[in-house]
Amino acid sequence: MTRVYFDHNATTRLDEKALAAMLPYLRERYGNASSRHGSGTLARKAVNQAREQVAALVGAQPAQVIFTSGGTESNNAFIKGAAGMMKPGQVVVSAIEHPCVAKPAQELARAGWKPRRLAVGRDGRIDPADVAQALKDPTGMVSVMLANNETGVIQDVAAVAEQARAARAWMHTDAVQALGKIEVDFNALNVHAMTLSAHKIHGPKGAGALVLDKRIELKPLLSGGGHEQGLRSGTENVPGIVGFGVACELAGQRLREVAPRLAAMRDTFERGLSGMGAIVFGAEAPRVPNTSYFAFPGIEGETLVIELDKAGFELASGAACSSTSTEPSATLLAMGVAPEFARGAVRLSLGRDNQPEQVEDFLKVLSATVARLRRLTAIAV
Fold this sequence. Notes:
The protein is an alpha/beta fold. The chain has two domains: 4-11 and 255-380, Aspartate Aminotransferase, domain 1 (Alpha-Beta Complex), CATH 3.90.1150.10; 16-250, Aspartate Aminotransferase, domain 2, CATH 3.40.640.10. The relative contact order is 0.16. Helices cover 41% and strands 13% of the residues. The longest helix is centred in the last third of the chain and has 39 residues, at 238-276.
């Protein structure tokens, strides 16, 4: 059976060019980038080149790029690192943040911080009035994701950042799901910090970055040899960093061609969904071009995903990071979706390898699968 992968928001296939660039640093160029000899110098040059490639994709300076192990570490590095440099106050995050933002923000309560969640509307967008209300209290930091990992809804981060800066708060955005799908510009977003991850853009797992305003000081999560400007001690993952850099360069080259093609396939898919009686979450808001989050009344999302997997199509019932949880999506609950309906949510996230005919074939399989599950549900009732 030919399998079709529709779960690119969870991870992407490593690009062959990124792999080819990585291989020498897994084999003959194995030097430690902090060593002073020739092998170390080669590794350092490779890290520096990757830093330039990552910075170029988001309109930042290379010195602003701090390499990490991925999105989770970068988000924790900012939230906990910023808290370590401030007196406890309010920490504001949106109600639809990834757990690696929401949980560390909540954990700060034990250190005297006051966590505050920003409300979102039924379209998945942050309520600007609630931002203004939240910032009436003294606030140390604000974190709002650029694109949601489940719905794909894009937030007006620049507008939130303007309010945060006016309140003298540090502004962070998790841009992991936006990178490579839409234009991402660090300066235009007006943030103090931005999180990126390699494996969402056809780079390797285990590599990411925190892009940081040079005027911001963070308390490091890891203390040691002072790597990454003293903000992330530990021997650099040179192969992973090299792959990340190449993936960023390729993403920048391909964005204008890939994004419209993905949007066209996503729109075709959602037209088909409409005819089947599905509800698409966040459809009224701006979204990244590859993501569709939907549900059929009366059908469990997990059941649908399992049946589609048997037919050779790989999707997700929510976010991969929460795949072991039986609770309905926190994002959908924040959007006002009823828990029993939220449990039906399924996410399709397209990638550059997907083709229109795969979407057409999938719609036929989905229609037949939904019809069969509805008959079984009717019999059970």
